[in-house]
Amino acid sequence: MSDVTLSSATRSNLLSLQRTTDLISQTQDRLSTGRKVNSAIDDALSFFKSRALGDRASDLATIKNNIVEGINVVETAVKSLESMEDTLKQMKAIAESAKAESSASERRALSTQFNTMMAQLNHMASDAEYNGVNLLIGTQQKLKVVFSEESDARVLTVGGQLLNNTAAAGTVGLGIHYGVCLGSFANVTTSDGSTGVNRTLTQIDGALDKVRSAAREFGTNAALMEIRKEFTENIVNTLETGASQLVNADMNAESANMLSLQTRQQLGTISLSIAQQSEQAVLRLF
């Protein structure tokens, strides 16, 4: 088979068309994927920098989600404490009404209401669970929230508190003595009865102080976690933006480039045709 001999003009036009075709293929890939760097072959430095930024963004996004879960645990406790505070206020009002009530039947009715509400305090404390964590049923319960992927030192530990009223002696938890509450209202006109109700009122005030103190402490922790959540979210957004800028294509620029390359391809084809026609015309002269 004889070799095909190309003139320098034809060879130049063919090489130019080949380069244009390659650029069109590259631009089509960028337009279809939205990325100018799809692998390390395209740009190793940008590719691996983008991957590193994306990996850190993913790690921090996981941490942010855990912070959100921590906020939910604490907010569940705070909402329960708010309900417990409202219940304690109602219990205090009932105790004060019983102290001023002269009818034994009314005092018994008030005592029943009081003890029903007191039982609800325990239900509110035991129901304050989120994802297996309850900060109101004892100090053995702890919430640990990690703020950074780099060091365990950046950990917030929220300790649980015993804020139910299950102890009969009233020495722990909310500290409202069951025996006093059950026996005092019916004998409120006697010296012992009045003393019992007064003691109950004192215990309720103490329970209110504990509930409010715990709500403040948990609220402070929730506010701190909210700040860290927003901070981490901002860092994640910055990292993701940086990773995208390294590898993502400018779609407007690529679209304009595609139009330019298609025009160049058309002109190259015309130029090649003209060159071939000129060569044939010269050959016909001989």
From TrEMBL:
Q: Name one GO cellular component term.
A: extracellular region
Any matching Pfam family: Flagellin_N
Q: Which parts of the sequence belong to the Flagellin N-terminal domain?
A: 11-140
Function noted in UniProt: Flagellin is the subunit protein which polymerizes to form the filaments of bacterial flagella.
- What is the name attached to this protein's record? Flagellin
* Keyword S-adenosyl-L-methionine belongs to the record: no
Q: Where in the cell is it found?
A: Secreted; Bacterial flagellum
Which SUPFAM superfamilies does this UniProt record tie to the protein?
Answer: Phase 1 flagellin (SSF64518)
**According to its UniProt record, which protein family does this protein belong to?**
Belongs to the bacterial flagellin family.
Which controlled-vocabulary keywords does the entry list? Bacterial flagellum, Cell projection, Cilium, Coiled coil, Flagellum, Secreted
Q: Name one GO molecular function term.
A: structural molecule activity
The superkingdom of the source organism is Bacteria
Q: Which Gene3D superfamilies match?
A: f41 fragment of flagellin, N-terminal domain (1.20.1330.10)
Q: Which InterPro entries match?
A: Flagellin, Flagellin_C, Flagellin_N
Task: Provide the coiled-coil residue spans.
Answer: 81-108
Domain named Flagellin C-terminal: which ranges?
A: 202-286
- Could you tell me which PANTHER family the record lists for this protein? FLAGELLIN
**Keyword Secreted on entry:** yes
